[in-house]
Amino acid sequence: MPCVSVRNNHARKASVKAANIERKNNRKITQAAKKQQKVATAKAKLQVRAESRVATAQAKTAAKSAKQTSKAATKTARRAAKSAKKAAKTRQSLEKRVLKKHQSHRAKTKSAQAKALKAQAKSAKLQARQASKTAAKTAKTQAKIAAAETKTQAKAALKTAKSTAKLAKTAARTEKISKVKTQIKTSVKSIKLPKLPKPTPPKLKKSPKAAAPSVQDASRAAKISGAGVQNSFKINHVAQDYTPALKPLRRTAFMTKDDLINAESRLGSTIFGPIPAGHRREFFHDQENIWIWFESWHDETGRPHQLTVRYEVRTSGVYKKISAGAYFKLAGDELENFRRATHAYLGLIKKYLYPHVATVK
Fold this sequence. Notes:
Blueprint: H1 4-101, H2 104-190, H3 215-225, H4 257-268, E1 280-287, E2 290-298, E3 304-314, E4 317-322, E5 328-329, H5 333-352
Antiparallel strand pairs: 1-2, 2-3, 3-4, 4-5
Helix pairs in contact: 1-2
């Protein structure tokens, strides 16, 4: 049967590959969004330039038309003045002829009429000049208004393009953040067991007759008190299918993280059979790929003893460390016993605390 750590490593590698693929896809999506944003901004700039060019062309045409109208007005005024002059000359000639024939007082009236005609011609010229000036002014004002409108439209188009680009960037950022959050949630959910607090030794009741320690406990105490502790402690007893003599543990909605940790430690302490009187044993999963064995007891003299063994599952194998010593690699029966103990631990926890999770095969 394969080790749980190997399965966990395979699952971790698969999750890392999936995360890398998702990052690559996210990068491609962001690059495509940036390209679309650049294309949109370029199109907006081209539209603004085309609109400005059209507006300037319209303004130029309007100015040209105004100039042409002013020129036509001046030409008509000159023609009218010339025709008026010709008419005046004809009238004057006729009046002269009449004056020669008639009396001198009619000559006076003709001179007055000539003066009136001159005044009319002058007024016509002034009106033509004023009309040309007003037409040129209106054309210039219309051109300025058209240019200002085109500028405002161009500014509005640029603002809208910038706002769309900003919205696209914010959308891409929110997508990245949401994907990172989902990855964090999945990585947190992939952690099977929470970290346990440091165990505290239990308080023993005073009894008149102290229970004699077993041969195994005596040998373990001798090993701890003597030299060579770093490589002396081993899991020499095989995990059994032991049903814990505890109250039925059921996970409820009101259980906190500490309650779950205590329940898991209680179940882990029953993997290797009943615990002797005056002993406290814990075997639990501390962190990812890290397992802890803790045991405390009192000897015949009442002296307390504690033992903490740390097991670390690596790609090269399983390593153990007793208290603050060095790491040593497991091999042979001890490695097989550790594997069976971890399988039994996971089976008990999934059976009594997490029934909705599939059991270990």
